[in-house]
């Protein structure tokens, strides 16, 4: 059984989707702890499912590295096999990424490497493209630059706003994340192998998306 730690900053909608999936009979992973960098509404989901929570407030530390050291100490107590960033609005220190990767996943509301960064949905709309997407990646020390594990296109419809487009992307993100966690648990996805192979076989950008 794959053990998973989930890190959040807000409402934890991806966390809730993972908790629901993990509660299904036969799902090969279980969430053992939920952590946050601030008081997060998503803790309510963890409490509802009886999952322990860990709060490591970023503002209480002088440096990002000190915060990262404490977060690592508190999460590593649970010895998770996989760590999922579920709306954690904080860049992890490089030392923490190095310690946890490649067993460190994040989702992004764009078809990476298109539109990385905090405003992927807004940037896609501003670019006037016909499609964007959702991606699940291994976190590295860059901004949305890690190995891509899964992704799917999402069309941009006439009249879409940042809100309406993001609301259509979110269910795709959740489904991809659940599928990836399941596949990691069953051994169908080897994150270490994907990380090794990324240089030899970089993901291509679909030229038809523009």
Automatic annotation (TrEMBL):
<dbReference type="InterPro" id="IPR036477">
    <property type="entry name" value="Formyl_transf_N_sf"/>
</dbReference>
<feature type="binding site">
    <location>
        <begin position="89"/>
        <end position="92"/>
    </location>
    <ligand>
        <name>(6R)-10-formyltetrahydrofolate</name>
    </ligand>
</feature>
<keyword id="KW-0808">Transferase</keyword>
<feature type="binding site">
    <location>
        <position position="106"/>
    </location>
    <ligand>
        <name>(6R)-10-formyltetrahydrofolate</name>
    </ligand>
</feature>
<dbReference type="GO" id="GO:0004644">
    <property type="term" value="F:phosphoribosylglycinamide formyltransferase activity"/>
</dbReference>
<dbReference type="InterPro" id="IPR002376">
    <property type="entry name" value="Formyl_transf_N"/>
</dbReference>
<feature type="active site" description="Proton donor">
    <location>
        <position position="108"/>
    </location>
</feature>
<feature type="domain" description="Formyl transferase N-terminal">
    <location>
        <begin position="4"/>
        <end position="181"/>
    </location>
</feature>
<dbReference type="InterPro" id="IPR004607">
    <property type="entry name" value="GART"/>
</dbReference>
<dbReference type="Pfam" id="PF00551">
    <property type="entry name" value="Formyl_trans_N"/>
</dbReference>
<comment type="pathway">
    <text>Purine metabolism; IMP biosynthesis via de novo pathway; N(2)-formyl-N(1)-(5-phospho-D-ribosyl)glycinamide from N(1)-(5-phospho-D-ribosyl)glycinamide (10-formyl THF route): step 1/1.</text>
</comment>
<feature type="binding site">
    <location>
        <position position="64"/>
    </location>
    <ligand>
        <name>(6R)-10-formyltetrahydrofolate</name>
    </ligand>
</feature>
<feature type="binding site">
    <location>
        <begin position="12"/>
        <end position="14"/>
    </location>
    <ligand>
        <name>N(1)-(5-phospho-beta-D-ribosyl)glycinamide</name>
    </ligand>
</feature>
<feature type="site" description="Raises pKa of active site His">
    <location>
        <position position="144"/>
    </location>
</feature>
<comment type="function">
    <text>Catalyzes the transfer of a formyl group from 10-formyltetrahydrofolate to 5-phospho-ribosyl-glycinamide (GAR), producing 5-phospho-ribosyl-N-formylglycinamide (FGAR) and tetrahydrofolate.</text>
</comment>
<keyword id="KW-0658">Purine biosynthesis</keyword>
<comment type="similarity">
    <text>Belongs to the GART family.</text>
</comment>
<protein>
    <recommendedName>
        <fullName>Phosphoribosylglycinamide formyltransferase</fullName>
        <ecNumber>2.1.2.2</ecNumber>
    </recommendedName>
</protein>
